[in-house]
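Re: that chain you flagged

S.,

Sorry for the slow reply, it's been a week of failed gels. I finally had a moment to sit down with the sequence you sent. For the record, here it is as I used it:
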Amino acid sequence: MDALSAGITDNYLDNIHNDPAQVRVSQICTAHCTLAGYNRRDFYKVTLNLACNSKLFYASRAIDIDKPALVFTNPLIPYSWEGDHTNSDGYFCVFTHQFLQGNGRLDSLDQSTLFKPGGDPVYFVNDEQVTFIRSLFERMEKEMESEYLYRFDVVRNHLNLIMHEAIKMQPAVAYYRPQKASSRIAQLFLGLLDKQFPVESPQYIVPLKKAGDYADKLAVHVNHLNAAVRESTGKSTTEHINSRILAEARQLLTHTDWSVSDIAASLGFDYASYFNNFFKKHTGLTPLALRKNL
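Prediction finished late last night. Pasting the structure tokens below so you have them in one place:
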């Protein structure tokens, strides 16, 4: 995975979870924040990309990043970057939904014009805007390193300023349908499916349960998604979903002491009986029978 699409290291993100503010700001590819696996499902990301030599892919859409741009990414909408990132330049901020709620903001980021599925995630910026937005990122980074008691409030305000600057812009993007769109959609679907696992707590409930849920997140019609996945993998979206749920169910039954009801709920089943029937249909055993045979 390349530098821009990857996000930031697990250790770096673990520090965010230990931080009640749940936010980090950094320059791209700095020594203290190298970019690597970015698979956490609860972080939003705002990037000021100054490298100007890449392509951004969202499901069946793509855009050439050939000038400075602000890019907004949602943790549940898979994306990827392609291009030469040896000279990556810019800033990014990763944060949770709860971080922005710290100022009383209650609206859903998933439905905002910047982050919603099918929206415009890329906003090209001119030299004057680059200067202003870069200064906001620099101020946020400086505040994060300070001991000021209310530094997270300052960072939150600067982040909101960046978001409002983007909202005021008219996106001037040229989307096109890349080659092998079906393969790309299938890969993004599989990536989105994988991001939901592992289930780490009985309180966590898998949010995407059926093909239509994934299609909504990818901003494509469910029939288009089904056709793309079958063409690329030879299996239906439902087969992939069921297989992943079964694999996770086996892990939870084998390696945890959670009740069958808790496992059923976390995997998206409304009733334990539905989970029992599903598991027995695909394995020939009930969940309790599998545990007894361990």
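What I noticed first: The longest strand covers residues 44-49.

Talk soon,
D.
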